[in-house]
Design goal:
This protein is α/β, with parallel strands linked by helices and 246 residues long. Helices cover 41% and strands 14% of the residues. The protein contains 8 helices and 8 strands. The longest helix is centred in the middle third of the chain and has 27 residues. The chain is globular and about 50 Å long. The chain starts with 7 loop residues before the first strand and ends with a strand. Bound molecules: NADPH dihydro-nicotinamide-adenine-dinucleotide phosphate (NDP). The site of NADPH dihydro-nicotinamide-adenine-dinucleotide phosphate has 30 residues, from helix 1.
Length: 246
């Protein structure tokens, strides 16, 4: 039986990297965390690690690009908890060479693959879970974007990302930012807040060894946006306490 007074959070791609650390930090706040993982074994291993730390964690098989998994996840959460308080759309992929300008070489296949995970799956999963988020007293949706989704910074010579142009990844995060703005507008009369997070450049499999930020700090923006108070922002784009330009 679940405890109706505890908040419930789903973190996609929660089995490693920033997602696992986000689950850990939300769990440490007393929130029940559902560790979404496309490979259930990896999800179970991550949930077991969190449980050993005293966190109420459960693994959930969820390949975000799989509609059957998305529907089954919604059904499971409905049956177990009757609502969802926090959705962290964290799962993401980047297949291009971080150091190259890939605009002239990116294939249509790469674009489609990256958009499937980083954009289309987020919209589909969020839609599947919206009825449960609406039942929360304070629903929060966090979309893991990136500073690389900022059109303003990409267009500004001298900005920190001006020469970091991974076309498919960057465009997928720009599209995700558009979703944040549109969904926040669609839900502006509800208690649900929707925001985009830039975690920082973080030492994970995706971020690489050269990244300056530790994972423990990389999860902080997601955790902050997942636990915003009722008078907190919606439809914004944040890194830690700072607002980023779209
Ligand atoms: P990692 O590569 O360490 O982890 C990515 C997670 O996403 C893994 O759990 C992976 O699962 C999961 N995932 C990928 N595809 C799917 C899928 N189809 N269904 C379910 N899960 C999936 O990356 P990070 O922790 O670094 O990244 C987390 C988010 O933060 C991403 O959205 C990324 O774009 C964003 N971000 C990261 C930055 C960084 O510097 N690290 C900078 C800016 C943004 P599996 O283990 O099975 O592969």
């Amino acid at each position: 039986m679940s405890d109706a007074t505890k908040k419930v959070a789903l973190i996609t791609g929660g089995n490693k990297g920033i997602g696992l650390e986000t689950a850990r930090q939300l769990g440490a706040l007393g929130i029940t965390v559902l560790v979404g993982a496309r490979d259930l074994k990896r999800g179970e291993a991550a949930a077991a690690e969190l449980k050993r730390e005293g966190i109420d964690a459960r693994a959930l098989k969820l390949d975000v690009v799989d509609d059957t998994d998305r529907k089954a996840a919604a059904k499971f959460i409905e049956k177990e908890f009757g609502r969802l308080d926090i959705l962290v759309n964290n799962a993401g992929i980047a297949s291009e060479d971080m150091s190259a300008n890939s605009t002239l070489t990116t294939t249509e296949e790469t674009l489609r693959t990256i958009f499937d995970t980083n954009f289309f799956a987020v919209v589909a999963l969020t839609n599947a879970l919206l009825p449960l988020l609406r039942k929360s007293a304070a629903g929060r949706v966090v979309n893991l974007s990136s500073i690389l989704g900022s059109l303003t910074l990409h267009a500004t010579a001298g900005s920190p990302i001006y020469n970091a142009k991974m076309f498919a990844y960057d465009a997928s995060k720009t599209a995700l930012n558009a979703y944040t703005i549109h969904l926040a507008h669609a839900l502006k009369e509800t208690k649900i807040k929707v925001n985009s997070a830039h975690p920082g450049w973080v030492k994970t499999e995706l971020g690489g060894e050269g990244a300056p930020m530790e994972i423990v700090d990389g999860a902080k923006t997601s955790v902050r946006l997942a636990t915003l108070p009722d008078d907190g922002p919606t439809g914004g784009y944040f890194h830690l306490g700072d607002t980023l330009p779209w």
